[in-house]
Amino acid sequence: MKRYLMTPGPTPVAPETQLAMAQPILHHRSPQFMEILGKVREDLRYLFQTEQEVLMFAATGTGAMEGAVVNTLCAGDTALVVDGGKFGERWTELCQVYGVKVDRIAVEWGRAVNPAEVAARLKANPAIKAVFVQANETSTGVQHPVRELAQITKSLPGAILVVDAISALGGYELPMDGWGLDIVVAGSQKAMMLPPGLAFAALSPKAWEFVKTSTLPKYYFDFAKQLKSQQKNQTAYTSAVTLTMGLMEVCARIRAEGLEKIFARNRRLSLATKEAVRAMGLELYAKDYPSDVLTAVLAPAGVDGQKVVANLRRKGIWIAGGQAQAKGKIFRIAHMGFIDETDLLGTIGGLEVVLNELGYKVDLGVGVKAAQAVLGKEAGA
Question: Staple partner for 83: which of 88, 233, 346, 372, CB 3.0–4.6 Å?
């Protein structure tokens, strides 16, 4: 049975990328690999839309999140954390592990943070040195208004904005320099179309000043050490050679299509998915700023969202369920990276069948038809 990977990470990997990673392995200190890394460094600047160096680590995105904390803060510092989902919780946990005080904004799951509340907290507590937020909260399908948050932090010399873009980078518009984001962290396994295993972090000049005064312990995730190595087309420690070779192919693919077209394609798939969901009588979980890279759907009354996931999996279609307090209440469908219209229409058709199996009656084809109407209109048909 074919497997259709429609989860918001990992996402499908193109055959060409798999072939690039299947080449004979290079030594990570060889001139050949240094040339590859030099090319990748330039391409990552394009992807992050920044003039700054993009640091690479052999880790998942959480490694880059941890690095963003330990390289910029000191024990006893105060950070403002936007906590509106499972990954917002992670910022709090990382700060607390290292003795950073947390001023937490608890955002209702399915909602986006109000920038005015962030501004008010910063005004009330000038000691806050960093604001931690998700660009895209993967657990709820909500995009936080990071552009508006950056407008607030740009005027504060003593505070930086740290953005988890693990499921956002390469999925929709998120220009680091253009919006004034201070730290952007990302991972390889979502819109970047690679297997898990690479983490990335880019820092603004303002954020690099924070690195100079940070006293938290760090070894592998030492940003200054990694920067020094990458400027010589090397990494501080053993490079993830195979993944980097795949990354070079992915970056070439992204440049060939262009970020603007990629963002438009993801937007089109997002609109099609959401219209299909509404046509089936279902509701989105995200009440504010629904994500362009995944759709979180409320399971209908009397239907366990986990059973929707399990039944689709038996048909070869892999979507994601809810996490923590949303477990059993929602299911999540990705539409980013190497996911196309045919993948999406097949998933929607499968969802219609599974919902009927679980007792929620849906006219077969109603969701597919709604999605096709969006895709046809957007394509100019």
Answer: 88
